[in-house]
Structure formats: structure tokens, C-alpha cells
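Blackboard transcription, Thursday session:
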Amino acid sequence: MIKVEGLTKKYAGLTAIHDLAFTVEKGEIVGFLGPNGAGKSTTMRILSCYLPATSGRASVAGFDVASQSREVRSRVGYMPENVALYPEMRVQEYLEYRAALKGIRGRTNRQRVNAVKELCGLRDVERKLVGALSKGYRQRVGLADALLHDPDLLILDEPTIGLDPNQIRQVRQLVRDLGKRHTILLSTHILTEVEMTCSRVLIINQGRIAASDTPEALAGRVRTAGGLRAEIRAPAAGLESALAALAGVRKTEILPLEDGWHECRLRTDAGHDPRAEIARLAAERRWPLRELGQEQVSLERVFAEITQAGEI
Amino acid sequence: MLTFLTLLNREIRAFFLSPVAWVVLFFFLLLTGFNFYAGVAALNRGPSEVTVVEAFFNTIFFWFGFILVLPLLTMRLFSEEYKMGTIEPLMTAPVRDSQVVLAKYLAAVFFFIVLWLPSLLYFVVFQQVTKLDAAGAAGPYIGAYAMLLLIGLFYLAIGCLTSAMTRNQIIAAVMSFSIIALLFFTGLLTFFILSVTPALRELTAYFSALEHMSEASRGFFDTRPVVFYLSLTAFTLFLTFHVFQSRRWRS
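(Written on the board underneath:)
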């Protein structure tokens, strides 16, 4: 559905994205992840034909975004990061106008407007002036607008930003439902959102694709060079030296808990799992051990690892 | 075509849904009404060579209102969309750049026409009340209003151009006002230059809106100003189109 090759965008003196290449297949829900300023919005704006690329090619549904821009635009539903609306129009009026602009006229116009109003929960504000809407409702109007022409591809730039927790949940549910019929590319920096909604993650950092995989596979990649967590009652100094002496342990961190218990966090090298040794060690020295396990790797850690190239 | 009509409809509605339009209409009518009154009052003082129509279209009041109001009509066309960010949803819809430019321009032209329509009433009322003819023939009416429209077309295109250049409405207004004033006062240059050669006078007369209007409101028809204004309008709109397109590369 999306094919991007060697895409580069330079603003005056600044390279926003550099030689980007990725593809999105029909039916995928792809989460576009990256720190602020990584180039997410720029990429999305190029794909929705708002900005031209400096070099490289991008196509949507087989149409080139530069030379067949109107073909692309009629197939893409784009929701910008800041949903900007004409404040003097009413919600109903605005949606009717947007639908007409996208070539939906006559009876179909009414039908589509009603359908997206239903879908996005805009029934009770249809008579309101757009300028008087709260941020949450404005976001929904933006989403409704993107859905009007039943596009093949939905590009949503941070669709849940500025929403309250309930609305966030609704939007995520909506995205999951839409994903059954549409291809979706959504950007966010909320990682749980990606874990909950996306079938694939693209991590972009400093204008380059840093990783592309399913959320689970990405987490697994970090787990191989993973972390262990143990709770042991023992003197801190002895504990630290004993654990550090184990094979494959890269780093230890001892945090005091109550009653002489300590929480030990270990970073291990890939391929090492010293859990059995830790259990044996505790038994030999008669240190009570009440918890021992592998840390659940969240996408957050993957993200931090990939974008900061620092220690996990 | 349907897309264009959708755009035009929204642009025209944007004019009439904003309070600015009504305030402009109100004060503009006040100004032209006073101008008409002053014209008639001046003619009352004694015999004169000019007709009421000629008097109406050639006063300082008329020109002042005319060139001041145009930048106000056009300044928001593009600038407001840039500033509010509504340009993004607009241009990610399947529309052509040329459709957007033309819709915005024609909406401004439409409002400009609406602005002047009530002034036709002045002459109707004048005729009813005084049982006198305001011009003597249809020529001056047609000439004056046609020239009004022609000059308006060009100056509105200038406003369109400056609005497409900036996201700041005030900058757009100041720029278009300055350009319009410069063009307009070229015609007055001959008053300030001491040694005016006939060639120079002829040249400035060719550019002078004052001259054009004074001729037209006497019922003279000249094709030169028609060509002059229409070609400049087309050229300015062409520039607007390119400035509008280039904003993507500049952003």
C-alpha cells in the first residue's frame, strides 16, 4: 500500500528525514514511533502530498505522491497532528463541505457524513460551531474528516494527543476496528498505544528507520540481551560482589527494600541466563530468596535502547 | 468544476459569516453615501460641467474608500489559512492549486460587487426625488461601473498575491495597499514633476486609474484600459498561483 524508497527531506539547513525506505502492506496497522523531531510528521506529510520530498520516491496504492498527487489524495485519509478547522462552520456543515471537496455529492454525501458522525461520536455536537468545540471533539472531527471518503489508507498523526483517558480508549478501539478494513499508518510516542493497536512497528530516529518489526519481536530482540530481577535477603556488599562474579553478568544494581531484603537488577550478556546459578548461590549461602525472574521487556525499553543507543 | 464550486461556495460564505464583512459593508456604505451627498451638494451650488455620476466617481472620498477597502477584503484569503493551519486539510484534499486560487479570488470579487451594488440605489433615488437625470445617458453609468469593476479586478488580484505570500494578514494588507497606492499615484506624478514633457504625461495617463475613471464616467469607451487591466489581472493571478505553489518548497 505504501512504498517509500530513498526518501529525503531537507528544510533550510536541516535534514528532517534521510534516505528513508520502508513498505506497508495492505491491511496492516503500522505504528510509526520516534522521539519528537525524528521525522514522523514530515514523512506523513509527504505521504499525504502536503509536502514534496527533496529526493527519493514514495507511492501510495501504486500512485506516485509527487506526479499523481490527486490520485493519492483521493485515496488517503489524513489526520494532521494539529487538527485545524474553520471555526465559523458548524460540525455538520464542515463535514458536508469536506465530503463535497473529496468528490462525495448528493445522497452519498448525507450518508457518509451520517456514518462518520456515528463512528466518531459527533451526533450530539453536529449543530455546534467548530470554533466552540473542545480539543477532544476537534480531534474527532479531524478523524471523521479523514474517514469521509472511505480511504484505502489512513494516515493518523498522533490521533490520541490531547484526549482524556476515556477518549483515548475509544480512539484506540476505533483504530483497531478500522484496521479490519483499512490500512493504517499512525504515529505516536505513547508506546502502550502501539502495543495495543499495531501489527507492526516502525521506529524512526534522527530521520532514519531504526527498526521495523512486530511489537513482540522487538521486545524479544531486547530480551535476549535481557535483564533479571531477584529479591534476596543478604548484606548488600556481599550480595553485590557475589552476583557480579557470576558468568555473563554485565551490570548489577542493588536496591534496599524493607527488613534487609534487597532488590537486585542484573543486566546479562546475550545468551546467558544465570538464574539457576543465582538460586544455587542463595541456597549455598543460606540467603533467603523470595523472587527471581526475567524482566518483562516493554516496548519502552526497546524504544529507549534503539533511539538512545545507550545501555538497556 | 464541482470541486471549484464547492470551494467558491465556502469562500463566499466565509466572507459573510465573519463580522468583518458586515462592518466593512456598513462603513463603506456610510462613506459612499456621504460622498454622494457631497457630490450633489457641490453641484447644487451652481452650474457645472460635470454630471452627478462623474462627481460621484471622481472625488477624493471615492478613491480613498476604494483603495483602502480592497486590501481589507483580500488580506485574509490565504494568510488566515496559513496561520490557522487549515491549509493542510485543504491541500491534502484532492483539489488543484489553481482551483483554490481562483475560488478565493472570485469570492473576493463577488464581495467587491456586493459592496458596490447599493450605490446604484443612490442614482435611482436621486432620479426619483429630483426628476433629473444623474448622467444624461446610460453611457456614464455603464462606463463608470465597468471601470470600477476593471480596476477592482486588478487591485483584488494584487491583494490575492500578497496574501498568498505571508501568514500575517497585516503584512499582506500593508503590502497590497502600498502596491495599489504606488500604482494609483503614478497618475498624480505629473503634478509633482516640474518639467512635464508631453510624452511623460501621456505615459502616466496610460497607467492612471484617475484618468481611466474620469474618462469612463463621462461615457467614453476606450479599449486600452480594458486590455491594460485584464492583462495585468491575469498576470497577477498567474503570479499568485506560482507563489501559492512555491509555499510547499519553502516550508
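Lecturer's comment: Residues 97-130 of chain B form the longest helix (34 residues).
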